[in-house]
Amino acid sequence: MSEMPIGIFDSGLGGISLLREAVSILPNENYIFYGDNLHAPYGDKTDDEIAKLSFDSVNYLVSKGVKAVVLACNTATAASIRALRDDKRLDLPIISLEPAIKPACEKPGDGKILMMATLATTRLKRYKALQSRMPDPSRVINVPCPGLVEMVERGTFAPEAYYDILYKLLNKYNGMKIDGIVLGCTHYIFIKSAIERYAKSNFKGECAFYDGNAATVRQLGRVLEANGLTNLNGNASVEFCTSGDRSKIYPIFELLMNHKENQSVKEEN
Predict the structure, then answer these.
(1) Is 145 a known active-site residue?
(2) Are 110 and 45 in contact (CB under 8 A)?
(3) CA-to-CA dists, residue 13 to 62, 101, 171, 186, angstroms
(4) 204 and 114 in one domain?
(5) Is residue 199 domain-shared with residue 67, that is, in the same domain?
(6) Which of 5, 146, 242, 243 is the most exposed place for a label (fewest CB within 10 A)?
(7) Which residue out of 145, 185, 207, 241 is catalytically annotated?
(8) pLDDT of 76-132, one tens digit each?
(9) Is 73 a catalytic residue?
(10) Helices 163-170 and 192-202: angle between axes, nearest 10 degrees
């Protein structure tokens, strides 16, 4: 059973950023990536719709014979992780990804923390509960970012292509002291340089960047070890699956797997 693959699920292709981290940190494992591209993005759907789609996607990966599933989608995690883990029919570890506001808020400072995410993530109870546990919840400014996911899914990476949409989303904070920016959607990691360029031009403060990908993969490794599921013989093979049009989506998958981005994003411990 230890040699069975790990399933990684995202509503679209943003979870490839976590997949790349997994391949780097756990190179002896094999992976199946499933993107629910037919129904992406999840950010504008109701809580019940997101939960149903998440269950369908996890069940698909289970049917493919995976030994564990990673929800590489903050929105899916917030909407469905508790129900997924409570479902007795899903007899395998399910690892979740959440916005890395904890390390951002634990770092001393008097500036604000921008938490950039989908609208669904910022409104769901699980995320609101997470924010309420921070030392100073009011320090966190939640910034819903409609439109960014769609641009990444089209394979748009040039920083200059994002200035107008980032201005629309962030201009109300121009001139503010920003201690940290949390990339609360796995898609945003692919455009970190565009967000960083905007931040340096318009905000004061350190504007340190945070995401939870590496911490999630390390947790995956601990869970596999605790359950006797660690693979010592794999070679980081990746099988790509999608609910959408594979002929159109697979080239973007390959592009994202090989995309070079500034890697200075800070990790959640």
Answers:
(1) no
(2) no
(3) 19, 22, 27, 8
(4) yes
(5) no
(6) 146
(7) 185
(8) 999 999 999 999 999 999 999 999 999 999 999 999 999 999 988 998 899 999 999
(9) yes
(10) 60
